[in-house]
Amino acid sequence: MARTDAIVLGAGIVGVSVALHLVKRGLAVALVDRGGAGEETSYGNAGIIEGNTIFPAAFPTDLAALMRIALKRAPEANYHLSFLPQVVPWLMAFRRASRPQRLIETAHAMRPLFARAVGEHETLMQETGASRYLRKNGWLKLYRSAGSFAALKPEFEFAAQLGIPLEALDVDGACALEPSLAPVFRHAVFWPQAASLSDPLAVTRAYAARFAALGGVTLKGDARSLHRAGQYWRVETDAGALDAEAAVVALGPWTPDVLGPLGIRLPLGIKRGYHRHYTAQGNAALSRPVLDNDAGYLITPMAQGIRLTTGIELAARDAAPTPVQFDRLMPKLRELFPLGARVDEKTWLGSRPCFPDSRPVIGRAPGEAGLWLAFGHAHWGLTLGPATGRLISEMMTGATPFCDPAPYGAERF
After folding, report:
1. Which of 9, 45, 246, 398 fits a 20 to 30 Å CA distance from 174?
2. How confident is the model over 273-311, as pLDDT tens digits?
3. What is the CATH number of the domain that holds 41?
4. Among 273, 269, 341, which Cα is nearest to 309's?
């Protein structure tokens, strides 16, 4: 029977970051996943490290937007009708958490993690030789209507209170940053402190390689086999059973598959999303992520081409793909940017693990000694992976956490 100090289940950006921080603190650590590092949800993201994030995504209040979504005409959201009965309780909780005062509370609670996001990534990138994938040239958000731009006033005011810089730009100012954009929008906001990655998968793999270089062990195994074996947690791997006094579940949208049999049920929801890669026509180029807010998509330059990411889809995690949002958004995208040919044959689909209050769970599992949780990062798994790894490693080793972990505890549910 093999034994180690800690088992980390899940080799996405969060799990890899947790494992790396634990091994840096002197623990013997095994990272267990059914696949390779960063190949699931961590691969298919916009590559943005959102240190500037203030308010989370909120339940829409505009009646016209709600009607577009209900009628399945909105590019920013889609849903499976058969899934609605299952997701309605989560949606109602999400709606309550979207009230203005609750959003302010969430913004304060999440600020310590976001404030460390870029710096924690930079530290790991310097250690792993991954700095070449980092762009520190901000990101640009475009608004086609005066109303959607005017709705940003509370965010601007809160950013000023927190000292987070932003630049409200006219069309000419935005096109000066990205000359290949067509002037089909009315307003723009540039967030200079945001960073982005040209290859999130390569960064996650670099962190995993550093973990291995420091003595960490990576094994293939079935996380669903996790169970108590006396005083230890045991998981079955291709190398046999593995025991540890501590286990960290960092499986993103698959976490309920492990926690459910243990009697731990938390209100995790799933927001699915898609991406495709394209070339640009002629000499057109993109130097940073660009969000077309009112049209519900984002484009960003990646090593694989220009990545186009969709808004959300409410559907069962394992349901068949239905990438209908591309048909709704492509006309708007081609108005804005001279997109060329597709460079990938298959549309990528991933699932974002989201709690209704838009906070992750980071900390001890309720009622289970030695079991720790690090999941539910919603749209910010890439952003908050290293900060989460540092925080939970400090908690597990008895060090003073860099911030109060209470707002992220599972006990809040």
Report:
1. 45
2. 999 999 999 999 999 999 999 999 999 999 999 999 999
3. 3.50.50.60
4. 273
Domain that holds residue 294: 72-79+139-192+269-354
